[in-house]
């Protein structure tokens, strides 16, 4: 199957700082990528759709000025959590569709963010 | 709206079978099934596109009843490696093409 990587896998930061998370499709191109957030023992919640060459679209309730998304190339999307607070601590996972027609979503390994 | 999964948790002995259901209140374009181990990202199991479609993956198979807006995941002769949380992700299609809405998850535990 297709491979999606994320970096870093784990990050601990102080409250008020910004954190950038990278999502890369390693063996395929992705004009669209998706960013999810998962709190402990909860389901995955879609935050935003990252679009190469255009602005990201955000789900209801997700602050676009706080979660900046940049789809720099056909293989790279970045999520920057600005002015992070402890309530932003979560597991952030990206996905990218691969294959033809079926749009199977392949997930990256996730980034565990802890804000102190 | 989030699809509803049932049951919330299942405990099995190795070799036993299980069924996990996923129901949506909205018309669906596709249903995706994933398994997630603790601390890891979800791993793709299968996708079902057409109403009535059934798919198999080793001893794991699934069905999709488009009319009833339901999907079921069947795990037969369970193995220890099947333990994890199973999520269904539903795709509505149209302007929501590619976006998945996940159920709350079903925790499956397989004991020796």
| Protein structure class of chain A | mainly beta
Shape of chain B: globular
Report, as a whole number of angstroms, the end-to-end distance of chain B: 37 Å
Multimeric organization: heterodimer
> pLDDT average of chain A, as an integer?
92
The unreliable regions of chain A are none
Helix content percent band of chain A: under 10%
Give the percentage of residues in beta strands of chain B. over 45%
Low-confidence stretches of chain B: none
Topology of chain A as a string of helices (H) and strands (E): EEEEEEEEEEE
The value of Rg of chain B in angstroms is 13 Å
Mean pLDDT of chain B: 90
Number of helical runs of chain B? 0
Account of the 3D structure:
Chain A has strands at 4-7, 10-13, 19-25, 32-38, 44-51, 57-58, 67-73, 76-81, 90-98, 104-107, 111-115. By secondary structure, chain A is an all-beta fold. In chain A, the strands form 2 sheets. In chain A, strands 2, 4, 5, 6, 9, 10 and 11 form a 7-stranded mixed beta sheet that branches. Chain A has a 4-stranded antiparallel beta sheet with strand order 1-3-8-7, with no helix packed on it. Chain A is globular and about 40 Å long. With 112 residues, chain B is mainly β. Chain B is built from no helices and 11 strands. Chain B has strands spanning 4-6, 9-13, 18-23, 30-36, 43-48, 54-57, 60-65, 70-75, 84-91, 101-102, 106-111. In chain B, strands 2, 4, 5, 9, 10 and 11 form a 6-stranded mixed beta sheet that branches. A 5-stranded antiparallel beta sheet of chain B has the order 1-3-8-7-6, with no helix packed on it. Chain B is globular, with a radius of gyration of 13 Å. At the A-B interface, strand 5, strand 9 and strand 10 of A face strand 4, strand 5, strand 9 and strand 10 of B.
């Amino acid at each position: 199957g297709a491979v999606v990587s994320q970096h870093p896998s784990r990050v601990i930061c102080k409250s008020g700082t910004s954190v950038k998370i990278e999502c890369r499709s390693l063996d395929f191109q992705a004009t669209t990528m998706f960013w999810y957030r998962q709190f402990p023992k909860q389901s995955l919640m879609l935050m935003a759709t990252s679009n190469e060459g255009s602005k990201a679209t955000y789900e209801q309730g997700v602050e676009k000025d706080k979660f900046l998304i940049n789809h720099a190339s056909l293989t790279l999307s970045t999520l920057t959590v600005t002015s992070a607070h402890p309530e932003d601590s979560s597991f952030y996972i990206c996905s990218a569709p691969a294959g033809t027609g079926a749009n199977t979503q392949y997930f990256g390994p996730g980034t565990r963010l802890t804000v102190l | 709206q989030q699809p509803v999964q049932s049951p919330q948790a299942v405990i099995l002995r190795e070799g036993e079978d299980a069924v996990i259901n996923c129901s949506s209140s909205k018309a669906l374009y596709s249903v995706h099934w994933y398994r997630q181990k603790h601390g890891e990202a979800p791993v793709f199991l299968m996708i079902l596109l057409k109403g009535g479609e059934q798919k198999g993956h080793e001893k794991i198979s699934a069905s999709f009843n488009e009319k009833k807006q339901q999907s079921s995941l069947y795990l037969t002769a369970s193995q220890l490696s099947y333990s994890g949380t199973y999520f269904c992700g539903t795709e509505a299609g149209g302007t929501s093409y590619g976006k998945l809405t996940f159920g709350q998850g079903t925790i499956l535990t397989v004991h020796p």
